[in-house]
Amino acid sequence: MLNQLRQQIDKVDNELLLVLKKRMDISRQMGEYKKNKDLEIKDPNRWEEVLQSRINKGVELGLDPDLVRELYDSVIHKYSQAQQH
Asked: Could you list the residue range(s) of the whole structural domain that residue 68 is in?
């Protein structure tokens, strides 16, 4: 039973990593687009909108709002760095 649960977690972790990779790829594309259009990389209004939306969705799913905030603070920070390169 324990091994089966671990295998399920491993599978979910792999799926999570694939989704994060996909998000990073899209962020890089956004960065290129913004550079080509001379747009600002960071948009604080959009960031607040995204963060609040994700926190609300996380709460609907039974997740701790602080966990969701920390996750997205980290993700958005790293991905905005990716947009700059």
From this structure: 2-83
